[in-house]
Structures are given as C-alpha cells and as structure tokens.
C-alpha cells in the first residue's frame, strides 16, 4: 500500500488532500498542530470508508517533533512514498513597516523551516541512494510568492518564495535518487485561513475579482496535488502548478 504524510492535514487544503489520497488508495498520516478533533474527524471518515489513516501531533517548526513524527510514520507504515508540505500560517494583514521581528521569525519558522525539516526527513527515507524506494514531494506554495501581497502579508509571500526555491533546488538535488519535488500555487481558496488575517469575508469579497469569478475549493487544490504525486506526473519535477482560477 502506498503511504503519504500530509502536514496540516486536519483542516482546509490538507484535509481535502487526505481524503482524496485515501480514495486513491494511500494509507494516510495526518499531521496537525493543535486541532486534534479536526484531524481525528478526517481520519475517522477515511477509516469509515474502508481506508487507512492515523493522526500525528507535531509542530513542523520543531525539529525534535518532526523527527518524532517521521519515526511514528516508520512504525505505523514501514515506508513513505509521498509527502505534502501543506502546513502553513498567515498573520493579520499588515504593512512591512509595522511588522515585528517576532512575527517575521514565526512566519519563516513554520512556513520555511517546517517545509525544510519535513522534506529532509522524507528524503532520508525515500532516497534510492540511501536504500529507499524513491518518492514524491509536493510543497504548497501560494500565488502570493509571485504577487508579493502588498499591504497584507509580504512576510508570508516571501516565505512562500523560499518554499519555491527549496522546490527547485531539492528537485535537482534528488532527481537521480528517485524523488520528484514539485510545488502547487493555490490562489484564493475557501478555507478558515482568511479569518486569521482578520478578514473573515475575504473569500466573498475577493472572489468576483478572479477571472473565473469565484474562489477555489480545497478539493480542487487536492486534485492538483494528487496528480503531481501520481505516476501520471512521472517526468514532472522542479516545477509549479497554479490552481488559481486564472489569476
Ligand atoms: P488552514 O485551513 O488554516 O489550515 C492550516 C493547517 O496547517 C491546519 O491543519 C493547521 O493545524 C496546520 N498548521 C499550522 N501551523 C502548523 C504547525 N506549526 N505545525 C503543524 N501544522 C500546522 O489553511 P489552508 O488554507 O488549508 O492552507 C493550507 C496551505 O495552503 C498553507 O500552506 C497555505 O499557506 C496555503 N495556501 C492557502 C491559500 C488559501 O487561500 N486558503 C492560498 C494559497 C496558499 P491545526 O488544524 O492543528 O491548527
């Protein structure tokens, strides 16, 4: 059975990836930080449909916690075929001139260091050069990486640009070790993340300005993620898939 670890898999885009991965036959490890109930609910749904799922608490920015999380995957599944680096945070809308070092550090720790640490642990297990069977990694970036997100969260946009550079470098570094590394850029997707910015109606307000006239759904993002992970994308690495409704 193919296995997958999805960080931040209890809610939003990560939860949609977990459900679709289970439908495609993966045993799914659902990581969460603090919302255990949400992660357990997704796992229960997968098991009720006949699939295999576990939940693992870990803050992806904490190296020891990440190592423990992957050790748990080893124990439960024995091997790892796929990683979705999905866990990510935003902060309240602000201009750069008003950002504290603490805010910027937290953004980088979760969105950048977290993605690096999980990718590192995945590569150590997947790499054919280290006795692994190969695998695939999808990093969840954002269209913000290209737009810069002025007056909202330039720190977040910059963290996603770093995730994109990680994608390019790691893909080239591990291509001959049987690992593919790609990134997906969601546009405006209808999840709870927007409330954290202090703009809970952001999706309703901004949807009409998108070429397709609406925000995307987590399920539409998951379709792209699962394609990038699949054998259908066997010759695709180091690249980016925009799932943005045309913007
Ligand atoms: P969401 O609904 O707010 O869910 C975020 C998930 O990340 C939650 O499961 C949360 O865990 C987890 N998480 C946060 N910090 C974590 C940490 N330190 N360690 C482990 N898990 C952590 O967000 P979303 O909208 O689905 O976003 C998912 C990804 O897509 C993010 O990387 C985001 O930047 C990206 N993205 C989203 C949009 C959008 O419009 N929604 C657009 C572009 C890119 P808990 O459940 O335990 O809190």
From the N-terminal CA to the C-terminal CA, the straight-line distance is 37 Å
* Highest CATH level, the class: Alpha Beta
Strands of the widest sheet, in order across it, are 3-2-1-4-5-6-7
Determine the CATH topology: Rossmann fold
Specify the CATH homologous superfamily.
NAD(P)-binding Rossmann-like Domain
SS-based class = alpha/beta
Q: Which shape, going by the Cα principal axes?
A: globular
In this structure, how is the largest beta sheet organized?
7 strands, parallel
- Regions with little confidence, pLDDT below 50 for 5+ residues: none
CATH architecture: 3-Layer(aba) Sandwich
Strand content: 5-15%
What's the tally of helices? 9
Alpha-carbon Rg, integer: 17 Å
Write down how many β-strands occur, each being a DSSP E stretch of 2 or more residues: 7
Mean pLDDT reading? 98
Question: How many structurally independent domains?
Answer: 1
Order of helices and strands: EHEHEHEHEHHEHHHE
Any ligands, ions or cofactors bound here, and which? NADP nicotinamide-adenine-dinucleotide phosphate
Q: What is the helix content?
A: 40-55%
Protein name: Glucose 1-dehydrogenase
Keywords: Oxidoreductase
Organism: Zemynaea arenosa
EC number: 1.1.1.47
